[in-house]
Amino acid sequence: MSDDLIENSGEFEASDADETQSSEETEPRFVFTPPIDIFESEEGLVLHADLPGVSSETLDLQVQDNKLTLFGRVNPPVPDNAELRYQEYEVGDFLRSFILSDEVDHERITASLQNGVLKVTLPRAPRTAARRIEVSPE
């Protein structure tokens, strides 16, 4: 897991997935690369990403131009009326991108989030049958 402390805004844009956004909100936040497991079957690929502290409301999953990007925002666990006295781990957001092959059917990608684990199903695109192309004389 790589840890980068960056300036991060409240919004994520897929076109700038690999770059840090800055805006009026300039609170520095850690951005972690979540660990990923990928399984392959005849139907396609299944991706599991560990995203502790991310909810479906704070998760942005996008596919654009064969690039799958996930960004999960984690809200600090300290209540507003409390003060953090001791901390052994850093809290931060999660960001990861993948280039998908042409074999993935983008229209049928599905995802679910349960107990901090994101499951993304990437079905294979149906193969087109070979067809003979008629060549007309000039």
From TrEMBL:
Pfam families: HSP20 (PF00011). This is Spore protein SP21. Belongs to the small heat shock protein (HSP20) family. It comes from the Bacteria. Residues 1-30 are annotated as: Disordered. It comes from Stratiformator vulcanicus. Residues 13-25 have a biased composition (Acidic residues). The gene is hspA_2. Coiled coil: none annotated. CDD domains: ACD_sHsps-like.
